[in-house]
Structure formats: C-alpha cells, structure tokens
Amino acid sequence: MSTRLTFLGHATFEIETAGKRLLLDPFLDDNPQAKIRAADVQPDVVLLTHGHFDHVGDCVAIAKRTGALVVANADICTWLERHGVENTHAMNIGGAHRFDFGTVKMTLAHHSSMLPDGAYGGNPSGFLLTLEDGVVYFAGDTGLFSDMTLIGEAGIDVAVLPIGDNFTMGPDDALQAVKLLQPGRVVPNHYNTWPPIEVDVQAWTEQVRAETAAEPIVTLPGESVTL
Ligand code: NI
Ligand code: MN
C-alpha cells in the first residue's frame, strides 16, 4: 500500500506508511476545522513540531489512550513525561533518526514554542520525513528562511507549508518557500482556521502554478494526498 497523507484540519495530518499510522500535531477536539475527535484516532506514532496549543492540543490524551510513541524536541518530551506520557523519543534540530516507519529529521523553524501551561517548549521545528514512497517536508509554524534551499536538496515530493500569515509565513513568503524548496507538490496549511489567518487560498494556488514547477494541492479536512 502506498503512503497516504490526510489533512485533518488546521495543522493536523495523519500519514499511513509502512503499516504504521503517524499523527502530526494532533489538535482535534478544539479545532474548528476538524471533522473527527481525538477519541477517533489510533496512531502508532505522534510527531510534534512545537508546544503551542494548536499543535499539542490532544497529544497527552491520545498518547495515554493509545500508548503511541511521541517524537518531539527534548524539552517537550520532558514536559510530556511530567504529564504521564511514558513512550517518548526526544530529538533536536539538525538530528535525524531512523524509525521502523522511516527516517525523521528535525528541521529549523522560526517561531516560538511555549507549552499550554506556560512551560518552556524548547525550539520549534519542522520535520523532514523520508518514507518508503517518498520524502515529505512539514515546515511547521515558521517564517520564511533561506536554509529552505538546503532542506530542498533532499528532493521533496510533498511539502506542507503554512500560508495563513500573522503567526507564520503568509502567501507571498510561502510562494517564495516553494521556490527555495522545489517540491513536487505543495499542500498549504495553517490558514482560515480563525480570522487572523484568513487568506485567499485559490489565489495562492494560481500563483504557485504560474511561478513554480510545484503542483499545489488544497486539501479539505478528511482529504488525502497519495505518494
Ligand atoms: Ni505555533
Ligand atoms: Mn500554530
């Protein structure tokens, strides 16, 4: 079976690959875009890009219920352990680790990362995932940075980029990010969840088509991209 990436709303994605289910930045119960609840997911692995509520939201509950391995930066892993999550794998920026489902590299993100209770969440990150059917890059919440050129050298099949502006890159900088990363396809996220991050996604996809070789794919919650 090929690798499948499913958008669950805002910045939450599920990946099915190598017989495993990965859940990225689980934020479902309080997510205005989500069609499913935290109780509905059954991940083997949870990956967290940073500590903000719209990314870690349901992680503790899901990890405790399922026993899923949580991959996050070392500071968030310490916090998770204090909240009763025992199965964690700590990483930090620039490091890669080979798991049974593929290789995870933790990448730079320009953002912040305080946890919902005010605890220190370390540095925010993105993830470069080398999976059996291709390479997926999750930028995480970030501004534009020129080192995206280096990340793109991995040969990205699908890039997941924030476009909502205000807290992350907006449409113009996300377009520039596509030019630096040169992915085959690009999936926008982190937009239209709340008023401060409302953007015209159709206008953005037209610009991506006109100015880059990447194929933009707008996914509604529940829709998938197959690698
Ligand atoms: Ni954030
Ligand atoms: Mn966010």
Characterise this structure:
With 227 residues, the protein is of the alpha/beta class. The protein has one domain: 4-Layer Sandwich (Metallo-beta-lactamase, Chain A). The protein has a seven-stranded mixed β-sheet, covered by helices on one side. The N and C termini lie close together (10 Å). The structure holds nickel (II) ion and manganese (II) ion. Manganese (II) ion binds next to helix 1. The site of nickel (II) ion has 5 residues, from loops.
Summarize the structure.
This protein is α/β, with parallel strands linked by helices and 227 residues long. Helices cover 21% and strands 30% of the residues. It has a seven-stranded mixed beta sheet, covered by helices on one side. A seven-stranded mixed beta sheet has the order 7-8-9-10-11-12-13.
What is the oligomeric state here?
A: single chain
Tell me the number of strands. Answer: 14
Largest sheet: 7 strands, mixed
CATH architecture: 4-Layer Sandwich
**Topology as H/E string?**
EEEEHHEHEEEEEHEHEHEE
- Summing up helix and strand content along with how strands pair, one would put the structural category as alpha/beta
How many structurally independent domains? 1
The DSSP helix count reads 6
Strand content: 25-35%
Q: Give the CATH class.
A: Alpha Beta
CATH topology: Metallo-beta-lactamase, Chain A
